[in-house]
Every structure is written in structure tokens, then in C-alpha cells.
Amino acid sequence: MRIASFNVENLTDAPNAEAPLAARLGVLRPQFERLAADILCLQEVDATKKGTRGKRTLTALNQLLAETRYRDYHVACTVNEKSDGPRDKHNLVVLSRWPIRSQAQYRNDCVHAPDYQRATSEPPDTTPLSVEWDRPILHVEIELPNGKGLHLLNMHLRAPLAAQIPGQKIGSFAWKSTAAWAEGYFLAAVKRSGQALEARIVIDRIFDADPTALVAVAGDFNAEERETPLRIVMGGQEDTRNGRLANRSLVLLEHTLPEHRRFTVIHSGHHHMLDHLIVSRQLLSRYRDIEVHNEGLGDELIAYTSVDAAPDSFHAPIVATFDDS
Questions:
Q1: Structural domain boundaries, residue 130
Q2: Structural contact between residues 57 and 93, judged by C-beta atoms closer than 8 angstroms
Q3: How many domains are there within the chain?
Q4: Is this model's pTM higher than 0.85 or not?
Q5: In the Cβ-directed half-sphere of 15, how many Cα atoms lie within 13 Å?
């Protein structure tokens, strides 16, 4: 059994896309085939709507999958809370060789969006702001060939880019004051950590129902191992200080990789492991190895400023192998 995760970055067939879909398919299809995944978690899959009344569909993804092993896989996707179709931007998708028993999504369902009063907005505004998460978490239960269920959470946490503060921007990325940037950066951290907390609550509920559950969490966390979001999701003994909770802690699979291979993003020459596969101890007993396909990974900052219509994703896909017994 091979479980993979890949942030494909703005997969769309929109005519105004930065890179034409045809060019992207030529790069992404070989990456998908190399993964040879039985279960594939995707992030940043856009949906398009045909006509003013049509339902949004994953047309770009369908074109990508049409000539691959995944074309007949079972599909679960995040949906717009106000309709029964996918969200317009940045959907989470799970492709499974095996049946999907159930699916659910969580966006401030287990954790109420905290209220916050902004300190640096211009003009001053004392109206409480509801700090909602940017995206939902997708939770599916997959029926494995042995009849057991696998609980899989697909996640994409907010990037560490400062959130909007009214009246404090002088450009797409430029700020009027350091204090305003700092407040926006703080709010981004609240969103990222809050979504991780929601995932942890979902995980605990799974273990409440079945202490021996097979659980995997995959996706783009926009955070590295010792940062707050990862620590919240993993729930390690060193944090809870309670050995009786050890069976609820999750394990980061990348630990078995050589350190020089532990990166999924290159930014300004620095290597970062932002995409992760994290599993329960029951699933860890079946674990065999993990791969990060980062051999051809480009530097996202250099590409942004110097490459016209780059078709690549600047995240490397990861895939782990388990016994399927």
C-alpha cells in the first residue's frame, strides 16, 4: 500500500492561468505515475464552472488523470459550504484505489473562530474580527483490501504570510508599518495553529471511537517539525507529559530519511520540509519506507522572478509504503 501527498499548486484550466494547462500536464503526469500511489492526497486543485448556472467541477484534474492509473480511482473532494460542488480555489482531493466509506470536512466546526480586535487597522476599527481558517480539513475513511478502515486527514494549512490589515498595505506584499505587518503575521499564525488544533480534536475523536484506529494525516502544513502546527497534530509524549496518552500520539515518517533528503520546498536557497505524512502507531507497524521526489525541485523564489509561465509545482511529492496485510 502506497500513500502519497502532493501540493500541485493552483491546478486550473482557467484561460488566465500563469502556465497553460497543457504545459502543466506534461510535467505533472510523469510525477503522478512515478508515485504509483494507491491513495493520493492532493492540495490546491481548482474547480471551474461552465456557464452561469453550472456546478463547479474539477475539470483540470480530470484532464490530468485521464491518461494515468488514477483515472478510475474513487474521489473525495472538499465542497463549498453554500453548495454541493467543489470550492472554486484550492480544493483538497483524495484519490483512492479502494472504496471511500465516508467523507467529512471541518472548518471551524470543532473549534470556534476566535474573535479578535485589530490594533493597527487604518482607520481604527474596534469591531471584533472573526478569525476563520482559510480552508477546511478533508477527512475520509477508506476501506482497505483486508476489510479494515483507514482514517485519512488531508490538510493544507495557511502559509506564513501576513494576513490583511485594513489600510496598511502599499502593494501586494509591501506594508506601511512594521507593527501592521507583525499583526498580520500573528493572525496568520493563529489561523495555521487553529486549523492544526481542529485536526487534533478530530484525531482524538477517532481514537475515542477506536483506540486501535489506523490514522494518517497528510498534506502541506506550511510548517516544519518543531513548529507549533506539527506539534499540535502529533501530540507527542514530551508535550503532554503523560505516557497513558502515548497511543494517541502520531509519528512523523520523514525521520527515516537521511537529513539531506528531508525537504519538499526550496526558497531562496534554503531547503524546507513543509509537506508531511504522519501516522498512528497502529499504522506505523505496517510502515516500510518513504520517498521524497525532490530531485528536480526548483527554487520557488528564483522561478517567481525569472521564469515565465513555469509549469512545475514548487512542492515535491512524498510517498510512503506500508504492508497491506
A1: 2-322
A2: no
A3: 1
A4: yes
A5: 1
